[in-house]
Design brief:
Order of helices and strands: HEE
Number of domains: 2
Distance between the termini: 61 Å
Radius of gyration: 23 Å
Number of helices: 1
Number of strands: 2
Oligomer: single chain
Structural class: mainly alpha
């Protein structure tokens, strides 16, 4: 079954609109998560190790440290 050019263009418009809405929703969610994370930048209550791992909220946190099962 073939469709006409007009049907194709209408379907493409609907898909493009849906993708744009999904993108905007994703961006709003990401911005909301970043806003929620802003409160996590407060000074770390306990710097150093926690249960043998480096505390990720401390300055100079290295996720690749041997204490965090990294490559170092």
């Amino acid at each position: 079954m073939e469709i006409t050019k007009e049907q194709y263009l209408e379907a493409k418009r609907i898909v493009d609109e849906y993708e744009r809405e999904e993108y905007e929703i994703g961006m709003r969610l990401a911005e909301q998560q970043l806003d929620e994370m802003d409160g996590l930048n407060e000074p770390c209550p306990t710097c150093g190790e926690i249960d043998g791992f480096d505390n990720p909220c401390c300055p100079n946190y290295d996720p690749l440290s041997y204490k965090n099962c990294g490559y170092a």
